[in-house]
Design a protein that fits this description.
The structure holds 2 protein chains of 2 kinds. Chain A is α+β, with helices and mostly antiparallel strands. Chain A contains 7 helices and 6 strands. Chain A has a 4-stranded antiparallel beta sheet, with no helix packed on it. Chain A is elongated, with a radius of gyration of 22 Å. Chain B is built from 1 helix and 10 strands. Chain B has an 8-stranded antiparallel barrel. The longest helix of chain B is centred in the first third of the chain and has 12 residues. Chain B starts with a helix and ends with a strand. Classes of the chains: A alpha+beta, B mainly beta. At the A-B interface, helix 2, helix 4, helix 5 and helix 6 of A face strand 1, strand 2, strand 3, strand 4 and strand 5 of B.
């Protein structure tokens, strides 16, 4: 998911070696089962995060009676802008980056982010309040835009000779970069001899 | 002469293609904006100082037509605002925030990328909400409005605009647009509570309609 070529070193007598040490998401197709599992994981993480950060709201305002009354209704919420313009987009950005780290191309990561947050909005948040236009729109849209910026910044920092602090910062803004890869150098080269034929695959930590 | 200049510009632009256009594809666009807002009811017009904003569009591009769900956010300061709500006449300074969502349609004059961008017109319907919060030096006459509470107006409106878009998804995929948005309030609410938990104090149909007129000058890019 990570790899793209950087340098190819060859000598007349040695086999061709391909060194892979660039951080980059490699987009790929996903099976239905993978999509289902990834969606379930992201949705579950949102539920856990919601209960953890808004336990008092869930406890005081949540009820199954609300659930029934709020189901299917969409309103403009009057929440503090900090929630609507910082909290929700940040959540959306991490959801987007989660899918990107799992190899979804940008548009598909946005679409998955949209379905995850919409599913959450209509199935969990209605326990305490009606689904809101701002959350449905801003979480995936502004979240993906923010995630796009985080991804570009973190990849730039990781792929250039940044200081340890800057690399740490790259992981802070894009912690999903831990998914799928760590900072390693992978070297692949073929061996074709009388007795052995195959590929050498070396990973250096 | 002016028509000739316009024609000449568009004619030259149509020959400057050297990259691929995207069409029949989804796209997400985000921009930052300068905004100017005027609020009016039947009697008074309040000019709100220049603010800043965000615009975002997600939708599907055909060859020349593009349909989006668009949102415009606008933040400004209130100076000497006079407004009536919940039986109170409120006069003071504070903060103003406006947010709109709705379907928009763009029509591109040319169906391929050009050096300077492709001119387009856009229009759409919007649902909108304006929020006002007031400072401590707010004068309140009558009624029960609390100066620490916020005032929101919900309504519907229209937007019209024009712009230039590079119509690309690769490098230099910028767009710039000028948009006029107008909304009319239908519902007025007083909001209390805390930063983490808002409380709806009152809500009523707007007796004195508040009209918002916002001009957006937005610059942004197609992210993907």
């Amino acid at each position: 998911m990570v790899f793209a070529q950087v340098d190819v070193s060859t000598t007349p007598s040695a086999p061709k070696k391909i060194s892979l040490k660039r951080y980059e998401y490699l987009d790929r197709d996903h099976s239905y089962k993978e999509i289902r599992n990834h969606l379930t994981f992201a949705y579950g993480a949102m539920v856990v995060g919601y209960v953890a950060t808004q336990y008092e709201t869930v406890k005081n305002n949540g009820s199954f009676r609300n659930y029934g009354n709020n189901a299917g209704k969409v309103v403009m919420d009057k929440d503090n802008p900090i929630w609507n313009l910082v909290g929700h987009p940040y959540t959306g950005s991490q959801t987007y980056l989660f899918y990107r780290a799992l190899g979804y191309e940008k548009l598909h990561a946005f679409q998955m982010s949209f379905w995850t947050s919409t599913l959450f909005e209509f199935s969990i948040e209605i326990y305490t309040e009606k689904a809101s236009v701002q959350d449905i729109y801003q979480t995936p849209v502004l979240g993906s835009a923010l995630g796009y910026a985080f991804e570009r910044t973190s990849m730039f920092l990781l792929n250039n000779d940044s200081s340890t602090i800057l690399k740490f910062f790259a992981y802070v803004i894009n912690p999903m970069a831990f998914f799928g890869f760590t900072e390693v150098e992978t070297v692949i080269y073929p061996e074709i001899s009388k007795n052995r034929q195959g590929l050498h695959y070396m990973v250096t930590f | 002469m002016k028509k000739m200049k316009t024609f000449f510009f568009l004619f030259l632009s149509s020959f400057s293609l050297h990259t691929y256009a995207y069409e029949n594809d989804f796209a997400l666009k985000v921009g930052v904006a300068y905004s100017y807002t005027a609020l009016s009811d039947v009697e008074v017009i309040h000019n709100i100082p220049l603010g800043f904003g965000l615009s975002s569009h997600v939708g599907y591009r055909f060859t020349r037509w593009e349909t989006n769900i668009s949102s415009y956010l606008n933040f400004s300061k209130l100076k000497g605002m006079e407004v009536e709500a919940n039986g109170s006449e409120i006069n003071g300074d504070g903060n103003f925030q406006s947010v709109t969502f709705g379907p928009t349609v763009r029509y591109y004059y040319i169906d391929h990328p050009t050096k300077y961008g492709v001119p387009y017109v856009l229009g759409g319907a919007q649902m909108a909400m304006q929020t006002m919060s007031f400072g401590v030096n707010t004068y309140i006459n009558g009624g029960s409005f609390d100066e620490l509470h916020k005032l929101t107006f919900e309504g519907y409106g229209l937007l019209l605009g024009l712009g230039l878009d590079k119509n690309k998804k690769d490098k230099r995929n910028y767009f710039t647009e000028f948009v006029y948005i107008t909304n009319m309030s239908r519902k007025t609410s007083e909001i209390g509570g805390t930063n983490t938990q808002v409380e709806l104090i009152t809500t009523e149909h707007s007796k004195r309609k508040v009209f918002e007129h916002t001009f957006f000058l937005s610059v942004g890019m197609t992210l993907f």
